[in-house]
Amino acid sequence: MDRLFYIARYEEILNGETTDIYFNRTVEVLKAAGLDKVKVRAEFHVVNLPRGYKWAVFAGLKEAVTLTVTKELPITIYAMPEGTLFKANEPIMVVEGNYADFAVYETTFLGILRHYSSIASKAARIKKLAGNRTCLFFGARVVHPAVQPMVDRAAYIGGCDGVAGVVGAKLLGIKPSGTMPHALMIVFRHATGDHTLAWAWFDKVMPNDVPRIVLVDTFLDEREEAMMAAKLLGNRLYGVRLDTPSSRRGNMEAIAREVRWTLDLAGYKNVKIVISGGVDEDEVIRLRDVADMFGVGTSIAFPPSVDISMDIVEAYDEKSGRWIPITKRGKLPGFKQVYRCRGTLNDQVVPWGSEPAPCPDGSRPEPLIRKFVEDGKAVETVPSDADIRDYVLKQLEYAEM
User: Fold this and answer.
1) Domain chopping of the chain, boundaries
2) DSSP conformation class of 382
């Protein structure tokens, strides 16, 4: 093996080597038949969203554009802005160009958009349910390290307030977020006989801008350890973390309410309750009244798949100079536009160039599909990651679960 890990190199991605073999064979056949200059429009869309999903978050456009522009692929890309909440059977991206010029990139484009959109959509759902509670992404440990930064970015633009991954946070331009592991508590207990010294040394060593959030479920009852931490650190204690309840007696809501009551009774109402360990949508709904912060990992890192597919919907006829709608059965042919009424997710999908119906208030809905790349050159800049996240959060205000 010519590499340390089973990961693709930059040049292999850019050169279209991260593809399914049948696309290589398709290009060979088209070239041999003299059909490598057939120009098409290929639409990316989702036929069915995951069970229970009314919408998903379109993510990954930045990397699709970066690949196209870096490689100078002779194609044009139309798309919804990254971070747009979309519904089933809506075009989210369209690639225009000679099919043979981008066929081998279908796998890569789909892999980028599917993976990003699946994670960002789940993060958005968690954040929507959490409301004004802080949601941190703790999923770096459940994915291959090669894709940690990508997973962190997807979770962040989907709505998470922070990420624990060091490299991911660095690329996002934010500070990584985290607390302390059980291992720290165990080492101090073994070496000194007093696991609470882990809290004291953490407070002594960490910079002032690192919140003092301590684990309070390692050796003793959570209520008892929470009070010990509060007395030891006083007003420097920011929060207590309750983790992995299933390994003990299980009822996290009862545990959290008991800890909250005890801290409040002792005058520590400012201390936050942080809950992690197997958190998913049901846990967020059940615990959001007692939790101040959630640490969510696996449920976001391994979400239901947003199954984006790509289909040719138009082909260019050289003789007539017109685009001809064409697609396989079960798909809607033709280049399309998506219009949305401001402040809603009420959309209309219409043939490109057609006028939409007015919004209920009489205003004209806004078109969502825009041109981002023309003949391999960027014509619109993808916003910053922070701006994309803000865009998602704004839409979540009126999105229904």
Assistant:
1) 10-120+305-396, 129-301
2) P
Distances (CA, A) of 240 to 51, 199, 211, 286: 35, 11, 11, 19
Residue 321's Cβ-count burial label (10 Å; 0-12, 13-18, 19+) is exposed
Q: Which two tokens stand for residue 36?
A: 């490598």
For 178-223, the pLDDT digits (tens) are 888 999 999 999 999 999 999 999 999 999 999 999 999 888 889 9
The CA dihedral of 85, 87, 90, 93, to the nearest 10 degrees, is 30
10-120+305-396: which CATH topology?
nicotinate phosphoribosyltransferase (3.20.140)
Question: What's the N-to-C CA distance of the chain in angstroms?
Answer: 47
| Spatial distance between the Cα atoms of 212 and 204, rounded to a whole number of angstroms | 10
- Please check whether residue 160 is in contact with residue 342, taking contact to mean a CB–CB distance below 8 angstroms: no
Residues recorded for the chain: 401
Fold of 129-301: TIM Barrel (3.20.20)
β-pairing, 308-317 with 39-46? antiparallel
pTM over 0.85: yes
Distance CA 276, CA 3 (A): 36
- Residue 35 token pair: 């059909």
